[in-house]
Amino acid sequence: MIRYLLPLLALIVSGAVPVAAVPLAADLLLPEAHAEPPPREIAVQVQGAYKPDRIEVTAGERVRLVFTRTAYTGCTREVVFPELGIRKELPTNGAVAIDLPVLAPGTYQFHWGMNMIHGTLVVTAAKG
Questions:
Q1: Number of domains the chain is built from
Q2: What global pTM score does this model have?
Q3: Which of 8, 39, 52, 83 would give a disulfide with 64, using CB separation of 3.0 to 4.6 Å?
């Protein structure tokens, strides 16, 4: 980058290029091609069971689970991912987003706080 700026600076100092014609530093940067895409969102309904109760994702994928609880029973008031150390309270008729960490291939269980109803998160190896 320096090798491009030094000749431009020399032209500006000599008066050959007006300062107004010089692009701002922000204009020289590449577009945000390297910005991470947003996580894939998966909606999970909580009403007597998880729907879906089996969720499949790819290893290394960024995933956000959005739980919406419409059941009024006390045992549905939280979701627990024991292997991941995640425990979230689920208010009735409210959406709760859980951003999962990037996971290695495997099977991860989740359940209600009282450990009655279960779901499974299946992480498969990336292809390629």
A1: 2
A2: 0.71
A3: 39
